[in-house]
Amino acid sequence: MSSFPFRFAGQDVAARPSGALWWPAERALVVADLHLGKAERMARRGGALLPPYEVQATLARLAAELEATGARRLIALGDSFDDDAAREGVAAALAAVTARVAVLWVSGNHDPGTAGAEVLLHGIALRHIAGDGPDISGHYHPKLRIAGRRVPVFLIGAGHLILPAFGTYTGGLDTDAPVLRTLIPEGLAVLTGRAARPIPLARRRRV
Asked: Is the dihedral of CA 107, 196, 90, 172 positive or negative?
């Protein structure tokens, strides 16, 4: 599977087909919105029943990415767990996958209090929800409608880099949603899947 290398805020990075971001200078794999335990949380709260394999599937993909990149560091940009109870349920499996790397947890709206709100690296803020750029974030689970499907994408703008959700069972916000058009009025969407393929975003009206 081929990645898409690009430069953001003075740093060389690469969008991987899995939805993870590779940051060579930091030997870091950056992911957002794992939402581990979502199926269990929905069942516990009487919601729709999802197939109970999302934790295993997400962690298997994460382990494969850590192995493929040789990452020494994992940076998770919030909503790593779907709620506090889910975090407790997946702790052992997650620890096994991340045992050989240093892990930096950034907190999101689904996992408040588990980590710091943001971290600054090379002048880039790593946070869950985009703020003052330059920043790398998640939260919105951006998706692009193409060929009748909604495909998870990276969104790359001048001051914001928004990652797709890495979790197995996650919805998403269309790239034409007003908040995403405001954050990134022009730039690139990078498709995930078999290959990380860039698609230019036409200049979009700020709303």
From this structure: positive
